[in-house]
Every structure is written in C-alpha cells, then in structure tokens.
Amino acid sequence: MYSTITENISKAIRNIPDFPVKGIQFKDITTVIRQPVLFAQITDLIAAQYANKGITKVVAIESRGFITGGTLAYKLGAGFVPVRKPGKLPSSTYGVTYDLEYGQDSLEIHRDALDKDDIVLLHDDLLATGGTALAALGLIKRFPVQQVFAAFIIELEMLNGRQRLAQHCDVFSLVRF
Ligand code: AMP
After folding, report:
1. What pTM does this model have?
2. Is 129 exposed, middle or buried (0-12, 13-18, 19+ CB in 10 A)?
3. CATH 3.40.50.300 matches 51-176
C-alpha cells in the first residue's frame, strides 16, 4: 500500500531538464499537487511518520515548502512557522546567509516563532545538497527547542543532503531519485 502510493507520487512528478539552468533536472511537483488524491496522500504519509512524536510546530521553507507545510501542520495539529527570503517577514527576525553553487542566498525567521517547549518538523519540497535545509536548521538552532526532525517529499540521493543533515536531525523523505 505504502509503496504503491509512493510509486504513484513518484510517477506523477514531472522532470524538466535544464531548468532553471542547464544541467539541472528540475523536479516539478505541480503535476502531483493538482491531483486531489495524491496531494492528500503526500500529507497523510508524511504526517503518519510523526504521529507519536509530539510535533508542535512545522517550520517550512519558502516557497514550495509552504504548500505541504501548511497541510502537514493542520494534519499534525501543529502550528505553522514560515522561513522566508530576506525582507518578507514584518517583525524582528534572525537571518542566515548560505552558499549556493553560484553565489549566496539568505533566509529569515521571526524571533518569536519558536520556544523551549517546541518539537519541530522542518519541511521543504525537496532535499538536494542540503544547503537550504541546513541553513534553516541554523535558524531553528537559535531557539532552545526540544527536538528537530526534517521531512521532504523528494530526496535527490546523489547529492548527499541526507548525510549533511543527519548529524543534526532525523531525516525522512517520501520519494527518492
Ligand atoms: P539544496 O539546498 O541543494 O538541498 O536545494 C534544495 C532547495 O532547492 C529546495 O528548496 C528545492 O525546492 C530547490 N531545488 C534544488 N534542486 C532542485 C531540483 N532538482 N528540482 C526542484 N527543486 C530543486
């Protein structure tokens, strides 16, 4: 059952070669989330992994992470915390700058987003090198939270993001390429 569903999700992901730049195989989830049953199953299967973990906040990364981050928070009975690109969050923030293959990027979180009782599920659509998730983890570590887990719809195994993240938190992905 589980493997049949994940196989259906995997098959529904559209691969776009050379987007946004040459050499990248872009994994497009719009072809999955437009299908009501698959959209619900993504949420249900990821949430099931954390049913007994006492997750209090889902911290999701802009912007594709927000789509299933919101439904996951609802399903888990948790709050939702956005991690956003610089200048988007209106109140006082913590920021982190991290290296991309070419250049740098930054992320921000509200300074009052988490507290010491929180058990956090970090979420994004896709884990590639792990740089983005590691940066978001750096933001979460600014708070004295109880525990952090990380969950992704897609993992690109060859890019070893899991190894980079595993030193910091438990990592789960629904489908792997
Ligand atoms: P990384 O920091 O290398 O783990 O990249 C993860 C972030 O970049 C996520 O927010 C993804 O949405 C996006 N991303 C990286 N590679 C891809 C890809 N091949 N297809 C779709 N999104 C990607």
Report:
1. 0.98
2. middle
3. no
